[in-house]
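We modelled the chain as a single entity of 317 amino acids. Its sequence is:
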Amino acid sequence: MTTPVHAAGPEPAEPAPVTVAEAPAAPDAEVDPLTEPSPMPLSEPLSAEGAALIDTGRAVDAVEVLRQAVAAGEPSATDLLVRAHLDSGAWQPLVDWLLPIVEEGEVRYAGRLGVALAALGDHERAEAAFRVAIANGQLSASNDLAILLRDQNRFGEVVQVLSWAASEGDPQAGANLVSLYLESGDTLAAIEAAEAYADETRPDTIVALADVRSVQERVDEAETYYRRAAELGGLRAHTAYGQFLLSARGDAAGAEAEFREAQRHAEPNWASTMGYFLVQAGRPEEARWYLQQAADSGDADAMTALIELDGGDPTDD
């Protein structure tokens, strides 16, 4: 989730030098080159190797290869190295590398810098970075800003940011607003938002509508929406449907099948979701690989679960 400063959105202004302390004004278009690796031309062998490692869940191994690619001047290497750092949870090295780059004017990395700063607990600079990103057309950074604001109990600002981002066309903001209302226990607001934002061109809003119908105990309708969201390619559709099957239907086999689909589609938190499911199903050795994948991506809860699987005390230093 994320929140912009004004419900009307950022206003354009003349380009100016960018620092993390002060966000400049926004261009019209959103450009986020970091969501997917670019196809690798034959002239970028190191980047191709790094991309392959990322795609097979070996982001930690990809980092050194991609550092070499950056040093060699391969055009795709920088974006891929940012992704490798993010996927491996290497927050401090990412901040050390990106902060001067963003301050020198490469604002397309501001949103990713904000993610790393937030993960390190540097909320003030994270918020500034997210606002730089939003002001420069990276609408998706609104969702990250909203998470940061939610964690600081700035609920009114979260609603403002997500409402604005949804109205501007962000595909996740409406769904995230529904999730926010459900988390806060405001079911009526969640229902209203889910019905208002439901749009098959934004599949995650169909997942959100399914979530609301599940809370309303309209389980058959909820299941129909989960299935439709999965057909449409919702970002977390298989994960949400699996959780629904487990909690509402008591269908562990169906849930596992959906969690494996979530893995196949690389949905957010697929590894931890499957790991926790397998632990609860009494299959700890199968769970270990998934929890390790999640821990390697910076998931502290997954690391705690691994320690507990080994009979250790996660509170020990």
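As a brief sanity check on the tokenised model: Residues 1-38 have pLDDT under 50 and may be disordered. The domain at 1-166 is CATH 1.25.40 (Serine Threonine Protein Phosphatase 5, Tetratricopeptide repeat).
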